[in-house]
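The freezer alarm interrupted the setup, so I double-checked each line after restarting. Inputs confirmed:
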Amino acid sequence: MAINVIGLDADDTLWESEAYFVDVQGRFRELLAAYDSGDDVQKHLFAVERRNLEFFGYGVKSFTLSMIETAIQLTGKQVSGDDVATIVGWGKEMMRHPVRLLDGVAEAVAALATEFRVLIITKGDLLHQEAKIAQSGLGELVEGVDVLTEKDASTYELLLRRRDIQPTTFLMAGNSVKSDVLPVLGLGSHGVHIPHGVTWEFENDHDGDPDVHGYHVVDSLADVAAVARSIV
Amino acid sequence: MAINVIGLDADDTLWESEAYFVDVQGRFRELLAAYDSGDDVQKHLFAVERRNLEFFGYGVKSFTLSMIETAIQLTGKQVSGDDVATIVGWGKEMMRHPVRLLDGVAEAVAALATEFRVLIITKGDLLHQEAKIAQSGLGELVEGVDVLTEKDASTYELLLRRRDIQPTTFLMAGNSVKSDVLPVLGLGSHGVHIPHGVTWEFENDHDGDPDVHGYHVVDSLADVAAVARSIV
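Predicted 3D structure, all chains:
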């Protein structure tokens, strides 16, 4: 069936996001280096982040709390108040980072919106996502914005039902095979992977394969319209 | 015009919320007492919370980060890693506190839903609010749930427009005059204040007066239907 509605992921599909996390992770490793913390900081932080997902969910506040917890653990509780304050400051800075649209995104979203119903479908912190959408100027180009707490088959199914969208007419595009592509395929919808240079380790934990699972891979958002048109 | 849609606040209107914050604040004061922190802990924490709203928004994660910041400031950065870990642990505990419905709420919501379109309209952390709604069992009784980042005239206006609700047919009920009542009055909608024993200091910062501003005050959610029916 022809595609009628296109869902677009936001972080690292429309604008840079992970790059800001990577930058702060670098500063975090430097901060902990002074404590001779030994352990692999990055690996430990990722394990804490993963464990904390079920308590704190996705986003900057959750990440900030995970850095604080990691700092306490890797320094044998010796981390200074000063350094904890620095980490909290990074959290505030990240909540306010400028929204840098990826190349060609504004034009591609505008073009898609002339031909399809377009939704921005993202997960994470409601406040931060709304602020970024407002700053991006993309909100006015699309039909709607949905911020989910998780992107899995059941949350996509609920969204499609609530918006009265027939799954076979829906195509989702984003940089995460795990969150943007695989969950919709089982619903009978279509998925397009747009790889991004920097992608969070968590999103790379999947067994997706375009040939096996039957999804599309394109270089940029500008290529999504052609894929959508090719589905009949 | 007759009321058609009723919006219900969630925290401290449908279930206990502030009581969990008050409990943790008590433990926080005890924790800081060991540092001879001198200052009025409660007052300082509230000031930090207020300042952090624009960075971190409402909810438990924001509150947890504000406690950490307050602890650093009031101890001259001497707060121990152990105590910071305790504070992070409180945050996790709060994200998981049991949902205790206020007296008569399940029955009142079910009764309202037989007569009106009912929406739960809350603000704060998306993950936490969704988890509480799921645990409450109230989600199935109502037409929809909206989690907002802020409850002011513009966010209510947007919500009513998005849901195609005529403002004069809308009534909002909740424990906060500031967030649940005053913002909707200017739109031509109706407001009902249901005072709750424990209400966050932030929500009490308003100049609302039922006689001056023209809103209703009732003892419990069970009284909202009668108020709604009285509006013609």
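Quick read of the result. Chain A touches chain B at residues 52, 55-57, 61-62, 64-65, 68-69, 71-72, 75-82, 84-85, 88, 91-92, 95-96, 125-127, 130, 147, 149 (CB under 8 Å).
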